[in-house]
């Protein structure tokens, strides 16, 4: 329940029956708990995904980890610590080249491991989703200006302006050495040495003094260069993600890419105005990428799974300016929608839900590109809300090699299915190499710290009335 007295209202469906797995294709081996959410607060959903739940539209589900054929482990990336890998940089540069020069990559598209939206009817007659989110879906409206960092050469140019060379020092001397030497060899006739002038100095002493002066100047210059090169803005630090993204924002580029954030629930005017264009891209995507027949990617399916959400809009004084809830992030290329990312903005994270794109742009690796943009977007939101610092990629399926790519967004954690603590993925994968299901928390005495010990206090909605579960149980027994 949120601070504004909003409630989360769900109908639990159970999880005893197996259904088709989208990974190993077994017809009855995928087990999960499910519930239909009529409405849900963002904090309640944050708590649920931190216990292994995910949503597809208004349907919220959690794999039965020790029973299902392909265990799906919740995964999150530390957005603030993320550094793009070589493959990530290649994808970013490929997009930047397309935006600046206007040509799509000619190499064949290898395909991204994305799962399609599928309908599987359960015993309750409502849709059960085996897996609704896909490959690192996301995009962002992130267009932050990048801090300019001087190079080492620029540092040295600054030093040159600060510390003059020895030849400049000599030229600026009001009393040249040559004049002193002339005075020593030609004293004033008939009067001997001038008592008002300093005593004559030997040339050897003057040369020694100049040499010492030059050495001191070089020492000072090296000291300034060393201090500047060790400044926090030194260029030997890894290039941040934002620098790669900003390279595609040049004014003289062949194409113009814009990413717009529109609220999908409740639908904003911008969302309503672009609904048909988004749906057409989704339809083309499902038919080309997932081989759906033309009549399957219907408008009702699109609305049910990718537009409807139980999360109402919520705002907080210490939260992001756009508030919390469900959004579509639309990629506009030269005025046309070419991709849409479905995301949830929650109190501590940005959660990826789904991504679809126009198949003509498949060679741009938009699934991975949008994930990188989403991480950058999360970093931007963290400036507004300090606790919003994680990027949730959905589920990591180690038993399905094509779905291991999510582990490449590091540093990242997997959720222990028994104690519900986050464990670095490097510590988890050795266990998953030996068994599909694994407990990651190696403390044998650790348990679920947030387990509900008093079920009787849980609130139940019964015949339009709100009551504790203990009261509901007594009423149910009285009816028998």
From TrEMBL:
Biased composition (Low complexity): 183-195
Top-level taxon in the UniProt lineage: Eukaryota
CC terms in the record's Gene Ontology section: cytoplasm
Region (Disordered): 163-202
Keyword Acyltransferase applies: yes
Residue ranges of domain N-end aminoacyl transferase N-terminal in the record: 19-90
Catalytic reaction(s) noted: an N-terminal L-alpha-aminoacyl-[protein] + L-arginyl-tRNA(Arg) = an N-terminal L-arginyl-L-aminoacyl-[protein] + tRNA(Arg) + H(+)
InterPro entries: Acyl_CoA_acyltransferase, Arg-tRNA-P_Trfase_1_euk, N-end_Aminoacyl_Trfase, N-end_Aminoacyl_Trfase_C, N-end_Aminoacyl_Trfase_N
Coiled-coil segments on the chain, per record: none
Domain spans labelled N-end rule aminoacyl transferase C-terminal: 278-416
Protein family per UniProt: Belongs to the R-transferase family.
Biological role: Involved in the post-translational conjugation of arginine to the N-terminal aspartate or glutamate of a protein. This arginylation is required for degradation of the protein via the ubiquitin pathway.
Record protein name field: Arginyl-tRNA--protein transferase 1
UniProt organism field: Takifugu bimaculatus
């Amino acid at each position: 329940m949120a601070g504004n007295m909003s409630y989360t209202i769900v109908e639990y469906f159970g999880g005893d029956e197996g259904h088709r797995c989208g990974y190993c294709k077994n017809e009855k081996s995928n087990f999960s708990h499910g519930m239909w959410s009529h409405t849900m607060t963002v904090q309640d959903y944050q708590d649920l995904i931190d216990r292994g739940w995910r949503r597809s539209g208004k349907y919220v589900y959690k794999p039965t980890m020790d029973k299902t054929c392909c265990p799906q482990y919740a995964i999150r990336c530390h957005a603030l610590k993320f550094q793009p890998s070589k493959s990530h940089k290649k994808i970013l540069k490929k997009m930047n080249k397309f935006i600046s020069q206007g040509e799509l990559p000619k190499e064949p598209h290898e395909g991204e491991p994305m799962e399609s939206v599928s309908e599987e009817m359960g015993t309750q007659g409502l849709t059960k989703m085996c897996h609704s989110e896909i490959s690192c879906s996301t995009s962002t409206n992130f267009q932050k200006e990048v801090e300019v960092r001087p190079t080492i050469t620029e540092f040295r140019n600054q030093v040159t302006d600060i510390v003059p060379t020895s030849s400049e020092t000599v030229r600026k001397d009001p009393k040249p050495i040559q004049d002193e030497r002339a005075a020593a060899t030609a004293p004033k006739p008939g009067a001997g040495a001038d008592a008002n002038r300093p005593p004559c100095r030997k040339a050897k002493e003057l040369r020694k003094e100049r040499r010492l002066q030059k050495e001191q100047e070089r020492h000072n210059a090296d000291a300034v260069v060393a201090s500047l090169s060790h400044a926090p803005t030194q260029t030997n630090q890894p290039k941040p993600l934002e620098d790669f993204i900003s390279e595609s924002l040049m004014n003289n580029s062949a194409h113009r890419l814009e990413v717009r954030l529109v609220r999908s629930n409740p639908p904003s005017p911008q969302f309503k105005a672009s609904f048909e264009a988004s749906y057409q891209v989704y339809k083309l995507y499902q038919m080309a990428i997932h081989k759906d027949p033309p009549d399957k990617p219907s408008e009702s399916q699109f609305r049910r799974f990718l537009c409807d959400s139980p999360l109402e809009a919520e705002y907080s004084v210490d939260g992001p300016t756009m508030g919390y809830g469900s959004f579509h992030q639309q990629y506009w290329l030269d005025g046309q929608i070419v991709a849409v990312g479905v995301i949830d903005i929650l109190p501590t994270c940005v959660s990826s839900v789904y991504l679809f794109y126009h198949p003509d742009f498949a060679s741009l690796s938009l699934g991975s590109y949008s994930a990188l943009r989403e991480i950058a977007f999360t970093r931007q939101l963290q400036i507004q809300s300090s606790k919003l610092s994680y990027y949730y990629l959905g589920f990591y399926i180690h038993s399905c090699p094509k779905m291991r790519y999510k582990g490449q967004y590091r540093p990242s954690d997997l959720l222990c299915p028994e104690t519900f603590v986050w464990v670095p993925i490097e510590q988890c994968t050795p266990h998953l190499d030996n068994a599909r299901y694994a407990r990651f928390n190696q403390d044998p005495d650790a348990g679920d710290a947030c387990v509900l010990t008093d079920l009787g206090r849980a609130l139940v909605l019964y015949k339009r009335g709100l009551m504790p579960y203990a009261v509901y149980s007594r009423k149910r027994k009285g009816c028998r």
